[in-house]
Specification:
The complex is a heterodimer of chains A (265) and B (304). In chain A, helix 4 (66-94) packs antiparallel against helix 7. Helix content of chain A is 77%, strand content 0%. Chain A has helices at 3-34, 40-49, 51-56, 66-94, 96-101, 104-108, 114-147, 154-181, 185-207, 226-230, 234-260. Chain A is built from eleven helices and no strands. With 265 residues, chain A is an all-alpha fold. Chain B is α/β, with parallel strands linked by helices. Chain B folds into two domains: 2-231, P-loop containing nucleotide triphosphate hydrolases (Rossmann fold, 3-Layer(aba) Sandwich), CATH 3.40.50.300; 233-303, Alpha-Beta Plaits, CATH 3.30.70. The longest helix of chain B is centred in the middle third of the chain and has 16 residues, at 175-190. Classes of the chains: A mainly alpha (265), B alpha/beta (304). Chain A binds chain B through residues 2, 4-5, 8, 12, 101-103, 105-113, 116, 260, 262-263, 265, and chain B through 60, 63-67, 84-86, 88-89, 91, 93, 95, 97, 99-101, 103, 112-113, 115-118, 155.
């Protein structure tokens, strides 16, 4: 890894990172403040009145405990979609945008190998994504402690985030792979953003249940299941392992392709 | 015995950049085809060709950005495709198109490149900036093409590399800075550096280069010494007279006239004596040397 490059990339992307943290901090606070142990029953009624609408966003059952509430309302969509958008944007900046603009010339016209450049950029992506997640976890624990002392089962909550970290790792791998093999930012964004978004939409449909439930087999988001993680089912960890594997394979293949291919510089 | 000892090492030692049957076919006759030439240690090599002839494509192979369909190229006995990071340790590069990040000032960028390369001698950067009168404090985004070109040049020379690959390095520079650049190239040459410099104008490399390679439509047309090319070059001048009648009578003198246009006569000169003698009999308003295009230079070179 090249520290100079690492620092430069962090410096040029920290604003984006801060914006996403700010947005997520706001949503986290709003969602937690909406939690009311007594209101749980009212929300259940709401869910019964419009089951399709609620399940569409992964908010099938409202849950009586704070962690169930959070796993439905926060980890059903917001904590997946916002980090996902962040990953898509950052992964594209780190490789494809440099190639497209031509500034990759300066990174490669140096004693640093392509592999070293790619590994440095990968490290930037992973460290910014996981610090973002860590900070959100901290905010959630902090806000919960202030609003509902002792209500959050912190151990379970951390496991939930380990699961989410696996999903984000897989997304990082995929988006980085696309960034490594693209010559133009346009294409990188189309595939880098298009496919995860498509998968997410499929996931939304699968959530609706009925015959559509089989759609869950075509999207990787199924591999992150808050319900199974909280229930402590072994299958949840197999699925997390699969997500890690997907991430590793994409990183590996992406970096290999970047090392070997012709670059339009 | 002596033959055995001398032959192989010197053969290897003499060549710094070797291009061997290099071929990259982009289809529709675009690309480079079966290019073979070399640049010797301590030599300045002018790589000439019109726009789109394949100069940059060749250079991109040398930089290891792209890989050939056939053939190979090496610098200092290291393969450009697989050992480029080792090559880059001792190589400076001015790209044909300078693309700089837009979220930094020039100075920040130079500091970044120096740190990134592991350059510790900031003095040299300051000397280079002073030489090109470069004030790099502004934002890169708002810099003119010439300013960006200067930044690119400083980046290429800052680590005092042994080999320099310069892709149309003077584009965007004003004539004064072009001269500064030529002086810099001559200094580096005196220090024994190997330099490959591309251009689409012969005059730009004739002052610095020892040999010149001309490429057209992806094929190497000729490699020859600058002296030979210069000798075979036709010298053409446009002479302006005070009246049209003078121009007409002058055109009938014992000289080779290419064309008469009102008061101007364009002449090809092989022998200067009769030309000067003829001119001395008239009132001359102006004499301009006609710059030859590359096409003309090698058309003439082959016409002989």
């Amino acid at each position: 890894m090249n520290t100079t490059l690492f620092m430069r990339e962090v410096r040029s992307s920290y604003k984006l990172w801060l914006i996403f943290i700010a947005i997520l901090a706001m949503y986290i606070s709003v969602i937690i403040s909406m939690f009311d142990p007594k209101l749980g029953e009212t929300l259940d009624l709401f869910a019964k009145a419009m089951p399709d609408m609620m399940s569409l966003f992964g908010m099938g059952s409202t849950g009586a405990t704070l962690i169930e509430f959070l796993s439905n309302y926060l980890y059903g969509m917001l904590m997946i979609v916002f980090p996902m958008v962040f990953i898509i944007m950052l992964a594209n900046r780190l490789i494809a945008a440099h190639v497209d603009r031509g500034s990759m010339t300066y990174l490669l016209a140096s004693p640093n190998t392509r592999r070293k450049v790619a590994l440095t950029q990968m490290t930037v992506l992973l460290s910014m994504t996981f610090t973002l997640l860590l900070i959100c976890v901290g905010i959630t624990i902090g806000v919960s402690a202030v609003m509902f002392p002792e209500a959050l089962a912190i151990g379970d909550f951390l496991w939930l985030n380990v699961g989410l970290a696996c999903l984000l790792f897989a997304l990082c791998g995929y988006c980085f792979f696309i960034s490594c093999v693209s010559n133009e930012t346009g294409k990188a964004v189309m595939f880098g953003a298009g496919i995860p978004t498509f998968f997410y939409l499929v996931q939304m449909l699968a959530n609706m249940g009925g015959k559509l439930v089989n759609l869950k087999y075509v999207t990787i988001f199924t591999l992150f299941s808050p319900k199974q993680i909280l229930a402590g089912e072994a299958s949840a960890w197999w699925m997390c392992g699969a997500l890690m594997l997907i991430g590793f394979v994409f990183f590996f293949v992406g970096i290999r392709r970047f090392e070997k291919r012709d670059l339009p510089l | 015995m002596i033959f055995l000892v001398l032959n192989k090492p010197i053969y290897k030692f003499k060549r710094m950049i070797t291009i061997n049957h290099l071929t990259k076919d982009y289809g529709q006759q675009r690309g480079i085809f079966d290019l073979t030439f070399d640049v010797k240690r301590g030599e300045v090599f002018g790589f000439l060709g019109p726009n789109g002839a394949g100069k940059t494509t060749t250079i991109r192979h040398l930089m290891g950005f792209i890989h050939p369909n056939m053939g190979s190229c090496s610098i200092d006995s290291l393969d450009c495709g697989t050992q480029s990071s080792e090559i880059q340790r001792n190589l400076g590069y001015v790209p044909g198109e300078i693309a700089l990040p837009d979220d930094m000032t020039g100075l920040q960028f130079l500091h970044f490149v120096a740190d990134y390369r592991g350059v510790t001698d900031w003095n040299r950067v300051e000397q280079l900036m002073a030489r090109f009168e470069l004030d790099a404090r502004g934002n890169l985004k708002r810099m003119s093409k010439g300013m960006k070109q200067k930044i690119g040049i400083v980046c290429a020379f800052m680590h005092d590399p042994k080999v320099l690959i310069l892709d149309e390095p003077t584009s965007g520079l004003d004539p004064l800075m072009q001269n500064n650049f030529i002086d810099l190239v001559l200094e580096e040459k005196a220090k024994g550096k190997t330099i490959l410099m591309s251009s689409h104008i012969f005059e730009e490399v004739e002052r610095t280069a020892d040999r010149v390679g001309i490429i057209r439509e992806g094929h190497l047309v000729t490699v020859d010494s600058v002296a030979t090319l210069k000798a075979s070059q036709r010298k053409r001048y446009t002479v302006s007279f005070s009246s049209e009648s003078d121009a007409k009578t002058f055109a009938k003198e014992n000289i080779t006239v290419d064309g008469v246009n009102e008061k101007d006569v364009t002449v090809t000169v092989r022998d200067f004596q009769p030309f000067v003698a003829a001119m001395s009999r008239y009132t001359i308003v102006n004499i301009v040397a006609v710059q030859q295009s590359l096409e003309e230079i090698f058309m003439h070179y082959y016409g002989k």
